[in-house]
Structures are given as C-alpha cells and as structure tokens.
Design a protein that fits this description.
Length: 1283
Amino acid sequence: MAPHPPRKTKKLAPTVDDALAATSSKSKGAKTSPAAPTPDAEPEKKKPDTRTLIAGSSWTGKLPMTLFNEHVQKQPMWEKPEYTVHRTPNGFTGAVNLRAKNPKTQEVTVLPPILPPREYMQEKGAQPTAIEARHFAATYALFRVCNMKNMAMALPPQYRDLWKGDFAELKKEAVARGQGYQYEADPFNAVKNRDDARATREKEIAVREKKREEVAKQNNTVSLDGQVRKIEKGWQRVPKVEMGVKTRKEVERMVKNDGVWNPYGVSLEQREERAIKEKLVSYGFRPSHIAEAVEICGSLEECIEWLLIHLPEDDVPPWALPENYIAGFALGTNDLQRENRIKRLASAGYSTDVCAEILDVCAGDESKAAFVLQRRLLGDAEGTVHNNGTDGNASTELWEEEQATLEAIFTERHSHERGVCSIRLELRTPTGGAITVHARQPPHYPSELPAINIEAALPAYIKLSILRQILLHARDNLLGEMMLFNVLDWLETNVRRIIEQPDRLRDIANATSTVAETTTVPAPMRKRQRKHPRPLVWTPNSPVSERMRASWIAKQSSPEQRKMLEVRKALPAWKLSDKIIASVSMNQVTIISGETGSGKSTQSVQFVLDDLIKQGYGEQANIICTQPRRISAIGLADRVADERCGRVGEEVGYTIRGESKQRAGTTKITFVTTGVLLRRLQTSGGSTKDVVDSLGDVSHIILDEVHERSLDTDFLLVLIRDVLKMRKDLKLILMSATLDANVFEQYFSGVSTVGKVEIEGRTHPVTDVHRTEILQMLGFAGLADEDGPDSDAPSDWEDDFSFGGKRAAPRKEKVRKQYNQVGHDGHNIDYDFITNVVQYIDAELGNEDGGILIFLPGLMEIDQTLRRLKDIPNLHALPLHAGLQSAEQKRVFSRPPKGMRKVVASTNVAETSITIDDIVAVIDTGRVKETSFDPANNMVRLTEMWASRAACKQRRGRAGRVRAGKCYKLYTKMQEMKMAERPEPEIRRVPLEQLCLSVKAMATLTIKSPFVSPQPKRDEAKAAKAAFGGGQGDVICDLRAYEQWSERRMRGEQTSSIRRWCDGNFLNHQTLMDISNTRSQYVSSLKEIGFLPHGGYGVPETYNRNNGSDPLLRALLAGAFQPQIARIDFPDAKYKASAGGAVAVDPEAHKIKYFNEENGRVFVHPGSTMFDAQGFPSSSVFMSYFAKMQTSKIFIRDLTPFNVYSLLMFGGTIEIDPQGRGLLVDGWLRLRGWARVGVLVSRLRMILDDLLARKVDEPGLDMSETDIVKLVTRMVSYDGLDR
C-alpha cells in the first residue's frame, strides 16, 4: 500500500473493539476534530468507520486483523498477537509481536517484531492512521506465515494487491539473501532450525580453527614448498578476492568447456619434465596427478593451473586453500536435512557441488540421487536404467536372501537398514583407518548395479577411483547374479593396488565437477579488407584539369586577384618561386628554410598548386600541409584562401580535431594539424602497405615548422620516409624558419633525392633591449652592468627583485632564495617588472598604433600577468595558448577597441606559424615549459626552463613584421649566451608508450574535459562537476555531462538555451561540440572497418546496451589505462554507535592514500572529482589514471575507481604468490584469496582474449550475447559475487 501524508488523528483506543465502537457512528468523509465535540456543537460530517476506512463501503468479507487473529488461534502453542504502532514523519507504522508457550516446559519463545524491511517501511510502509497501520502489519504477518496458501482473495482489494505484489517481491529478495526461513509456516520452528544450524556451523568452524591453530599461528601462511611463514605486513591489509558459489560453477564450466591447454603444442624435454615434476612435488601435489598434468601442459605455470582446476578440493595443497576453508561444508544453508543428505552422498568422494546439483534435480530424493551420481561416474550422462526383466518383488526377495547370507559370513561387521547394507572390510587404509562398504538396493536387482559407497579416511579421488573400478568390474562380470560378496572379495584383493595407482583425474572428472571437460577448436578467421582512397593516375589535361586551368587563367585578370598578386610579389618567397617549383619537380624531397616574414608558409604551397594547374594536373592535385597547432592551420587557411580570392572550404580548406572545412575533389590545399594526418595513417590498417594506400590520393605533403621537432612530427617523418620508398610520385616538402637542413638532408638522402631552397626574411629592423638596459630605462640608475667586460657575475641576481614599487634597487647582491619545488630551476618571473615594462612601452609609443606581445612559459603565468595588467585602463589584454578554443584564439588577430592598446600574453604558440600583424613590441621572459621524462621512475615532469636561442630568435622576429620594432629581453646577454642553441627533440623527452599505443589506435582522450573552472567560482564549478560524476570518477563524469548535453540537442532545444545550460553547469559548449565531432569521426571509422553496421545515424542502441552500467564502464576504463593503476590504501576503520549497532564511518579524504608501482605514494589532483572522496563505488579498491605529472607532488588525474575483478579481468598477468599469501597481478598488486580463483580468472581471460581476437579479425561478429561476455559483465559488476 502506498504511503500517505501524515494527518492528525485522535488517540487510539486501547482495543480494536473500542476503536470500532468509537468510529461506527461516523459517516464517510468526516473530518477529525482536534477536540471532542460538545453537546452544543453544530453537527458535522462523520469520520468513516473502520470497515469503510480499511476495505471500502462495499466490502463484506473479513478484515486483515480478524483473519490473522483467527489463524493464530488455530495454532496450539501460539499466544494472542500484540500490535505496536509508531508515529513517523511519514505517518504511522505497525508491527506484530508473536509469542509461543511450550505447555510442558512453560518456556516462552518471543519472535522479533514482524514487519517489512526498514527500506520498504521508509519508502512505502507508512500509513495515514494508526488503525490502518495495524491492518497493514496484520496483512504482512499473515503473508509471512500463509504465503504458501491462496489467501489473497479473502483480503480487501488494496491488501490483496500487496499480497500478490510487494510482499511477494519481498519474499523473493529474502530468499535470494538466504533469509527464506522468515516466510515458513511455523516461524518458531524456523527460528529454532536456524539457531541449530548456526550452532552446528559455529561448532564445526571452531573445530577447524583449533586444528588450524595447531599448524600455524595467526597471520601465518603455508608457502608452495610447505613452509609455514608469518605473513608480511604488506599482505595483511590488501584486498580480498571472493567468488560466489554459482559464479564459480559457471566459470569452471566455461573454462572446462572452452579452455585450451598447451595451445602451441609445446613438447617438454626429459630434463624440463623432470625439473617440473620435482618442483610440483615440493609444492605438495601428488606424483600421479603431476604425471597427468605434465602430459597435458607445456610449462610449470600451466601445470599448476591445470592441477588447481582439476583436483578435488580435499586434495588441494594447503597453500592453495582459502582462509577458514572447510572441505565439503556448504555455508549459508538453513536446511539441515538437505545438508545431511549432501554430506552422506559426498562421503563417497563426490564433489559437494555435484551432490547438491544432483539432489536438487532428484527433488531431494537421496536414494535416486545416489544412483544418478554412480551412473555419472561411469560416464552414463543420461542416467539410462538397464532393466533385464527382474520384477520388483523378485528383486527384493533376492536382495533379502543375499543379506542373510552376508550377515552369516560377516556377523557383527554387517548391518542392514532401509535397503542399505554396510560391511566393514578387514582391510585397512595405509594409515590404519577402517574401510566400510555401503550398498543401496537398486529397483531391479541383480540386473542393475547397487549404489555403492566406499567410506574410508582416503582422499576423494582415491575413493572415487576404487568405486569406479569396482563398478566397471561388476558391470562387466557380475550383472544377473547376486554380486555383493564377489564385490567385497574383489575389493579386498584390489584396494591396495588402486590406492597406489589411482585413476586419472580426467577419468573421474564427471564426479568431481559439475561439468565435464571438452575440447573446442576455433574456426579459422577471415581478415577483413580495409577501404583506402583511390590512388592517383597522372593523366594530364583531363576534362576536370582543363576546366580548372581555364578558371585559373580567367581569375588572374580579375582586379581582386591582381591586387592580391601585388601583395604576394612583395614577399621574398615570390622571387624564388621558380627555384621552389624546379626543386619540387626534380626532387622527391625539398627542404625550404626561410626567415620570419618570408612568406614560405603561405606562398610555397600556392606555387606548387599553380604549377600543377598550368601543367594540366589540376585534378590530381591534393596537397596536405601540416601545422603544429590548430590556430596555425585555421589562420593559414584563411590567409591563403583570401590571397586566392576564394572562401575557406572551397579550393583551400582545413581539418583540425573536431572541425573540418573542405570538400572532397574540390579542395586542393588542406591545412591540417600534425595529429590529424598522423591519425589518418594510424587508422589505415597497420602495415607499411596500408599506410602507403591511405595516402593514395595525396600528391604532396608539406610539413611546416619541422624545426620544433615535436613527437608527432618526428613520427610522421619516420612513416613518410617508408612511404617515399614505395611511392616515387609522392612529393615531400619540409619547411621551417630555423631549419638545420643538413640533419634532414642526411635522413632522407638514402631513400630519395633532396633539394634545398633558402629564402631571406623580410622583417623590419628589431632592436634588442636586454635586462640591464631595461633597468636603466625604468630609472633604476647606479646598477652595475653585469654584462660588462669586467663582470664575473655568474647569474642574474635581479631575478628575485621586485621593481613594482619604483624603489631604488639595492647595490648589494641579494641572497638567492632556495627553490625545492620539482620542475623549477630557481628563476622566478617578476610580474611587477613585466607590468612596468608594458607601461613604459605604452608611454613610449604614445598615440602610435601597435600591439605588445608577451612570451610567458605557461597558462598560470599568463593568468598572473593578465591580472596585473587589468588595472591599467587603456590596455586591451588577451590570452593566447593552445588550451583556448578556436574562436577565443582568433580574438588576438582583431584590432583593439579605439583608444586602447592590444597586449597579448602568450605561450610559445606565437613563436611561429601565426602572425599577429599589428605587433610592434615583444617582451620575452626567456622562459618555456617543457615535458621531460625520467625513465628511472617512469615519471613525466613539466619543467620550467630557459628557452633555446633559436626560440628566442623566433620571438624577436614577431616585433618586426609591420615596421621597426623592439624586443625587450628580461634576461641578460650572459644568460642568453648560456641558452641551448636548439630545443631537445620531444621524442627524446617523453615516454614512448603513448606513441606506441597511438600507432595501434586513435586516442580517445585527446580532447580536454568539457568542464571549466573560473578562478572566482572554483567552488561552484567543483560542485557542478561533482553533480554529474556521482562518485564514478572523472572520465564517467565527463561522459554523463556530454550525454545530457547531447540529449538536449537531440530534443531540438535551441542553441541559446543549451549555451545557458552549459554556463550554469560550468561546461564549455565548444569543447562539447569538439567531443561530438571527434565521436562522430570515431564512429565513422568503426563503420568503415566493419565494427559497426553501415547506415543510420550514430551508434545503434543494441551496441550501447550496457552504457548505463557504471561498474562495467569503470572496468573497461581500467583496462584501457593499464598499467596506470594506483592502489587505494584505507586507514583503519572507525565506528560509531547507532540504534542498529556499531556503524562504520567513512574515512576522511586526506587519510586515504594512493600508491603506484613506480613512485610509491601519489596524490589525487585537486581538480579531480575524486579529490574529496571518502568512499568509492562497488567495493572499489584501485584507481586508474590517464595522466601523471610531477610538480610540487606527484599528481594523478582523469581518475576512475574500480574493484578487484575489474583488475583481474582487464589488468596485468595473474601469478600465484610463491609464499602462499594470495595472488600477484602485474607483478606488484597483491590480493588475498584462493589460488584456484586466480587460476580460473586467468583461464577465463584467455577465453575472452580469444573472442576479442576473433572480433578484430571478424569485425561483424556479434559478441553481446555470448556466454563469456555476459559472465564477465556480471563478475565485474558484482565483484565476483552471486546476484
């Protein structure tokens, strides 16, 4: 019954009858008065009586309380029920108290109050009035004891619905939790049985624990060589691996059905085989088992895995057993009769799992189950019964006759009861224990075998071996005659032989496991052919080429084009156009070096295209020009399109990540970022031929700014050099302002001819003003010039001096500060000094136009500088860095508002490629931030350092593009001489793992997070971000934000409304657009290679069915970021008292620690949603990260928490700890748990890997409904437990 809002009611009468009497005279719909009505009060509408209130005016049957009270009265020892009612904020809740008195002992048993679970009561259990709460409680109590009866129809309609709906679901949930006893007909007897079962379990566990303590003290473990050792401290706090019983059965079934042993057919030499056998014996395995494993497996590790999977649990070495393990004991059961039947069946050596399964199939019939188990041991899976014609009466007579004979022979060693005879042999076990044979009468004796059980203190596999061999002997030789004596005689003769030479494990596998082992041979896969562009055919003067030439000739005479030509002719590159064209025509590789302002980036590409058009190869022309940055690609596309009197997206276009303006067949010059071209090659297929074919429609590749030696550029050079060997018609042009041509010439001269062209610059004079001169200009006179001939100052002591206050600088050198921060070389940027220089330049320029460009090392420094400049009223200050969106970057090219001077604070993105054409002054801090890699601890550091002289030369050139300018260098001439000549190539400064991964697949985290965090609103932004995350980690937080944004777009919501929503949630709309575009490109690539079906928009829903499963997404992210994993180290648990007992308190976030393999302790980045986390979802004990960076500390970011089974299924290799302490993943992550679980998971991973490999070779394969995918999904979702 759904809860109602609370309302005021009168005080309840002490009894139900009084309550009925009090309300019987009130009419339906009457309101409750706060006080009793006076005789003089006016008549008012009466309150409905109890029957109407509970069941409605038309109900004529009994009410719930009456039905339950009548049921209680029929029970001989039950006392009258008591009802309790409590007022809650939501209304009234009721419960029923039951008692039972034993008439003999007068002992009173009191049950806990009967009411639904707390969660249900809080959500649905509250009632508007106390009387309704009592009837609700009576209905639930009646269901608890009578749910097996059809009593629903006797209840009023609303309670009938509860009976069939909510209460039935509550029962299912209780049964799933192992609490089905709560819904038995006799609750008193159910509680007694449960208490007895608990006492039995506790007694057996106590016995087991006592025995365990005799072997090892607390925190001791048994190693593989049998030694007892104390567990190291590092292993005592590690996570535990647990696997549910049902899950383990399913995994075992899959491993035995689909697993492949020794897949490569390794044949061991005698020496290797002997060494493996000796090692396995030292690990505690039996020689007969070892011999069988060595025949099947190809290595020591595989032998261990095979043995741990196939050995019966009672014969597994101690080091491989889980903690508190009791062989053959089923935990969590409350059915003692069933448990005892399973124990009796398992005493023959059968697995308890097999016995439980067969007993359930036989509906609890122990005798029938015994015969089914026996037929299963003999390989008769269908359990066929052979009837040779003996009828039941004759069978019983023969059986009884034989029993009389056996009793006379064996006297007191023989017993017979209920169709089962027991005979104790004179033969003893090797340890002196008794051997007893039990035989159960079959339906048709002696034409059928009796069910035989060998009871002895022997390992299960030996008992099953004895049983199997005697059954085979009896089946082949004794059927049709009274056989028990012959069976016993055969056993007396052969038992010792079987103990010494038992059956192979595979022969008895049907009895030791719920599944039989099969061998699966995968079918050969056919590799899918990838699609590549159509290669160029160099046929001149095609119709398309003729039309292009005619159009080009006609355009040359237009006024706009003639005007643009005059501008182009003024560039130094124009004078060398013929030389450039000749070099490109005669050589496969051309190296063009040119100073800033020479026009090399804008003109060379046009020279090549115009020459192709004039020669009649316009149709074949397809020139790709790479740029290191997005802003460069966009800016050059705009500039070249303008010079050709066209629009971007027609003859000239660009493609950057998430944005493209070009048309296939029409666009002849395409400016792209280096990463775009690299991804085109990455997704080609992998082989050199695939890379060549992916460039089949490209005529020329121009790599600009190659002097920067970025990782992507250098890797492109490697790939393209291989392409040039196979495609002699492909032309490569390398361009840079400061190019060491000899290095590149030597690199390419071995595969092709190389031409060189050098273009002089066209910059106006630029005057250098060093630090000492700046100090004098600012009025700080009297300072010695440390650059003078008599100076021996080793460094710039002024670096730490603030000039913001216009004070006289001290003549005495200041003691240098100590900088312990990692990634800093001790030189600080003085922002007051920069501000004073800007003011000086602005005053010097006066009314003249012209902007100021400041070079700074990073985003933080840009923010600091802009904050200082905002107080100067006539400045229009703008940032410029790679993190800005395209629209924000373009603002630096616009003219400033009237009466204001533009100041651009930029990183090194403004050094090359882009030109801000109104810059007349440059302020160069001489600083840059570069990544460096320390291979000793696998750490990437972002280090601020001095820039190279080549970079500073580029910065200087920015001041002379429009007229004579000045470069204010905030460092001394001496420091400039100490700078490196050129920057170190990035490929030598960063780890190559990411590069290697990018060779195989397109990176999906190349776009930054869509969240923004403005400095004044950091807390609000953090709260908004956390609302999307839900504690699932940073990557899923970004995903959920993107999904909500995308859903709004799909609904057709106006863009202005979506932007307002983005602003309110601190989301960058343009970044979300970039993500959407990249996602579309990725989906297109997946369709192209066959992983998704062609046609339609986006991803079909069937392929995204598990998108709502956060545990699965976190597991896959953990696998994707492997091995970038940190373990979570929780502090000792603390508890607080509550009404329900002690409750664990979440630890404080700063007390939770994180450790990775290379660096030890690491720290969560403050910008992560996990920074303040006190708890983690789904039993997460590990954290994957995408990025790691060392600044003041070693920070990890882009975090995703995940659980143990996510690590086991998608992490590194799984090893069994040789000290018997548990499992070792990826060589360092420790897990406490059963070694067999690790082996099962390891073999399951092999099956999954095989399926994934098949998917790669056969992209159209549907894996979603395969058993392995479903099983793995459940395991990572529920951390290996049963649900």
